[in-house]
Specification:
Helix 2 (about 80-90) packs across helix 4. A hairpin with a 2-residue loop joins strand 4 and strand 5 (about 160). The protein has helices spanning about 30-40, 80-90, 110-115, 135-145, 170-185, 215-220, 225-230, 230-240, and strands at about 70-75, 95-100, 120-130, 155, 160, 165-170, 200, 205. The strands form two sheets. It has a six-stranded mixed beta sheet with strand order 7-6-1-3-2-8. A two-stranded antiparallel ribbon has the order 4-5. The chain contains eight helices and eight strands, in the order H-E-H-E-H-E-H-E-E-E-H-E-E-H-H-H. By secondary structure, the protein is of the alpha+beta class.
Amino acid sequence: MGTSFKLRAGVPAWLLLAAAALPATLAPGLVQAEEALAKTEAPQLAVTPSAPVTPVPPEYDLPLAEKSGKATLILAGGCYWGMQAVFQHVKGVSNVTAGYAGGLKSTAEYAKVIGGGTGHAESVLIEYDPAKLSIGTLLQIYFFVAHDPTQLNRQGPDIGSQYRSTIFTDSKDEARVAVAYMNQIDALKLLPHPIVTKMRPLFPFYRAEGYHQNFVQNHPKQRYVLVNDLPKLARLKQAFPKLWREEPLRYEPEENKRTKLLPPPTLSQ
């Protein structure tokens, strides 16, 4: 990526959520209960990107593949519940896994990530058919539906670097599309504020705990979901009717332990 591209810098994490103080020795059931309570008691602010009714597509994109196959993309954009739910409703996507990226294996668990000091971001691993979906189309949904890319280190009621907006990729072609698209959106002032999404090299992706998978499908009447996630699904259906999948994909983990899905790069510790 040339020096003319605008790269976004991060800021230190905010350790503001009470879950950061949860002892690691707590049983998973108790941790889950504490997390649900924290979500319920958090300020319920709707996360609705201020975007045109019809999102503008990228001027520069990669062509669709000639043959069907499987490609992957790791995106971070706030709480992974809503991110997973959005892409589970997109035709051409074959699987979406909620998890953690950006940190080490030893800290890839919710009770630690929620504190904001692990380097991890709540993320989703999207598996899709590159003959049916381009990287530009996925980013169009990411920027205009799945989250608000103008919020720095937060999404609505969720505050901290673990909720940052980040694209993880080692592909120079994907990075060119992403950065060009961000610059296009900013230049046209399609959003009320500049995009703060960061580009980062590919990190190991660790699957989140089982009870975080398919959370929106499992808890559609939970207050946090009603306020923050279901409006995203309505917007996806409205803005991308041809890509809307009425029956969402469902991720079914083989077991509830986190599994490293991608090989790690060389990390300095």
